[in-house]
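EI: anyone free to look at a 334-residue chain?
SC: sure, send it
EI:
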Amino acid sequence: MSRRRSQYLVVAALVFVAVTGLLRNRFAAYLGASGLFKARFAVDAPVSPESFCPGGAHPNPNVVLCDNFEDDGFERRWDIGGHQGIWPTSQFVLCTDGHFGFHDRCAAWSNKLVFDREWGFYGYDGRRAFTPQSEFYVRWYQYIGDPFVWGTLEDKSVMLHDQANTLVGYVGTNRNHLPVVPDSGPGKPFVANYQDVDTPETGGLYTKVNRFQNQGRNITLQPGNWYLFEWYVKLNDPGVSNGVTRLWIDPAADPITKQTLRMEYSDMRWLKARDAGKQFGVVRFTVYHQRCEIAQHTCPPYAPVVLSQSQRWDQLVISKTPIGPMEQSLITNH
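SC: here you go
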């Protein structure tokens, strides 16, 4: 892909890559599994889903999707790509030593981040469709590998798309706009909304694309730790900045009795005027470790080819109502 010379085209190219998954490589599925993880599934019995999930003891009709990655059917449920073919899709989920996940055996992960010769490094790119929604919660547990060096610009993590792949919003684990944005920085989570780009509907502003913590109790993610994330999304009236996002994040080493709200915005423009009728209906796990500075058009350094760092995801739930930590019933408020 040729380098863009104007800032506008650079931003457009970046958005296109994120939305379409241009860099995903489908040939990885044909590679043999690495001997390092030949014990892919432990002999222990899979952990049962939470009681409110489909297949649980008391399934809740508000729950749209659950995945604890405890069975061997993930390759049927998830569309998996990435790594430019150097790592097999069969290793998107691991059960190493029977405790790779959060309080269970298995978790999805993104490892061995590969330089894309443009913007940064990426690993696995897994997508799973769900019944499209206009207002919903997404809960997951996420582990930051140790060591993990944060991207100079950002690290993408959990993304949402519509099923036609024309919308994109995501929670990233890191975005650095210091010193201009004091609530940004290495390991500071944020929410991105690529529909809020420079158009007449937003008054020609880029400033609302990235949303940072704004509750006066910022969290900085630390390598070697699990965290509980819960993300609320309510779509806007098309073309009107009246959508909502909220993000709760808590360290998960100890029981969580009350989730901590880190971010809340009620002026989100998830849908442009031309997006009437669209809803989010795909969840996507990936680490895109971005080192490029768009305005300066630099991407230091261009090496190594592969970064040996990773993140994991587990206990994914999508629901029409609040979810809360594991081992609790669906809650009615936070």
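EI: The domain at 7-42+49-319 is CATH 2.60.120.200 (Jelly Rolls).
SC: 👍
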